[in-house]
Design goal:
This protein is mainly β and about 100 residues long. Helices cover about 5% and strands about 25% of the residues. Strands 2-1-7-5-6 form a 5-stranded mixed β-sheet. Strands 3-4 form a two-stranded antiparallel sheet. The longest helix is centred in the middle third of the chain and has 6 residues.
């Protein structure tokens, strides 16, 4: 995986292990998911509307461009969610699962 961001400062903060699309990586304590992701991969996610890769836009939770998912299917805004140890992030929207209507 190649990254979009390069960390230039505050490199001594505590390491926080997370998983991105099955790859174990380290973020730093206090990072948002957006910073953690873009320090490890080229984009946050692929658009569910088919118009390409996304890397966030407004950086403050308004534009809806930075949604990612946990392995359990929870949606998170990457720009406003602080990393936690053990997060398993998926950058491709999971298929919708509908309950049986019988």
């Amino acid at each position: 995986m190649s990254q979009r961001f390069v960390r230039l400062a505050e490199t001594a903060r505590e390491r926080v292990p997370i998983v991105i699309d099955g790859h174990a990586v380290d973020a730093l304590a206090g990072d948002t998911l957006m910073v953690a992701l873009l320090n490890n991969v080229r984009h946050l996610r692929e658009s569910e509307f088919g118009d390409g890769k996304r890397a966030g836009f407004c950086l403050m939770g308004a534009c809806q461009d930075c949604w990612v998912w946990t392995a359990s299917g929870e949606r998170l805004r990457a720009c406003t969610t602080v990393v936690e140890a053990g997060l398993h992030i998926i950058t491709k929207q999971p298929e919708a699962t509908w309950p049986k209507l019988a």
